[in-house]
Amino acid sequence: MLTLEQAAERLGTTAPFPRRLIAERGTAFVKVGRHVRTAKSALDAMRLRCG
């Protein structure tokens, strides 16, 4: 599981981009208490869908 900052680094973007993806339900995520995490596989699947 990746933090939003790690997800942004993996995607080559800034931190607001993964936050927007989650808000728009563009990728799967899990809430751990107050924190949001996303799986590497979910990011890879999103990248394949978006090209």
UniProtKB/TrEMBL annotation:
One of its GO terms (molecular function) is DNA binding. Keywords: DNA-binding. InterPro entries: SinI_DNA-bd (IPR010093). It comes from the Bacteria. The keyword DNA-binding applies. The keyword DNA-binding applies. NCBIfam families: excise (TIGR01764). This is Excisionase family DNA-binding protein. The lineage of its organism: Bacteria, Bacillati, Actinomycetota, Actinomycetes, Kitasatosporales.
